[in-house]
Design a protein that fits this description.
The chain is globular. The strands form 3 sheets. A 6-stranded mixed β-sheet has the order 2-1-5-6-7-8, with helices on both faces. The protein is built from 12 helices and 10 strands. It folds into 2 domains: 188 residues, Type I PLP-dependent aspartate aminotransferase-like (Major domain) (Aspartate Aminotransferase, domain 2, 3-Layer(aba) Sandwich), CATH 3.40.640; 82 residues, Aspartate Aminotransferase, domain 1, CATH 3.90.1150. It is α/β, with parallel strands linked by helices and 291 residues long. The two termini are 34 Å apart.
């Protein structure tokens, strides 16, 4: 992400980077540190706990030619709410009309609907524009979080642009870290190039994905039972490690003070941190807190 934003600053210093509201906190933090311009587009509807698609398109209607629009490829962090493929096509059509440059951040591929399915939107974006940036992380889906393993891909319309992008990325790499650590990258490369290891990895990744879906379904079902309503069913529909409850910081604080349950102030929950024993405890606390 950092290298991509530095590349954008070199190539188009006047461009505005558009971020979803909300987004991963490091996105705006890095942009601010680099002295770049940013704006937000609506993404999450706290009432429906789903994507505010109409609001998103309305806000992106103000994008100027050459602006960069950062999109979460799958498993949106922090909300867990994701665009459908028809909605993705609508966003792509609008960005085409605006002559914008898409920048896809895909950090949780394989945690949502499957390895291939989670990459579908990113592949569609990559095939729809002359210029695309894609930042893919292996931290979570390969379990190499501390190794800082990932890849930045720059898609260009011709070989001249491609070579220029590569030269600039090499320059930025040299300035920022000279040589990246190799251990995590070598692990990932070895797995992907060995059919047997890759099959094992894909099977384990699918097991993790299904486990998170089971946790989501169980939590939503327990909340439905306790509340006698379907207002928490969105938890089963979200995908990835996280979901936003869509509640207030005051009620998040009430969970902490009254029940010893901690979450980020914006009500982001780490679904992957739950288990069969803690789900009933969390569900009861959510209801007791008046969420």
């Amino acid at each position: 992400i950092r290298q991509a934003l530095e590349l954008i600053k070199l190539a188009a210093p006047g461009a505005t980077v558009w971020l979803s509201d909300p987004t991963w906190p490091n996105h705006p933090s890095i942009i601010k540190y680099l002295g770049m311009k940013s704006k937000t587009y609506r993404y999450f509807d706290a009432e429906t706990r789903n994507v505010d698609y109409v609001g998103m398109l309305t806000d992106l209607g103000a994008v100027l030619p050459g602006d960069v629009v950062l999109l979460h490829g799958c498993c949106h962090n922090p909300t867990g709410a994701n665009l459908t493929m028809p909605q993705w096509k609508g966003v792509i059509e609008l960005l085409h009309e605006k002559s914008a440059v898409p920048f896809v951040d895909i950090a949780y591929q394989g945690f949502g609907d499957g390895l291939a399915q989670d990459g579908e939107a990113t592949r569609l974006v990559a095939s729809s524009f002359d210029n695309v940036l894609i930042a893919a992380s292996c931290s979570k889906n390969f379990g190499v979080y501390r190794e800082r393993t990932g890849i930045l891909m720059s898609i260009a319309k011709d070989t001249a642009q491609r070579d220029l992008a590569q030269q600039n990325m090499s320059f930025l790499n040299r300035q920022n870290f000279s040589f990246p650590p190799d251990h995590g990258a070598r692990v990932v490369t070895t797995i992907l190039n060995d059919p047997e290891l890759r099959a094992d990895w894909e099977a384990e990744l699918e097991e993790v994905r299904l486990g998170m879906l089971e946790l989501r379904t169980a939590l939503a079902a327990e909340l439905r039972r306790l509340s006698n309503s379907d207002r928490f069913d969105f938890l089963a529909e979200h995908r990835g490690m996280f979901s936003l409850l869509g509640t207030t910081p005051e009620l998040v604080e009430k969970l902490r003070a009254d029940h010893g349950i901690y979450m980020v102030g914006d009500s982001r929950m780490n679904i992957a941190g739950l288990n069969a024993k803690t789900i009933p405890v969390l569900a009861k606390a959510i209801i007791d807190a008046g969420i």
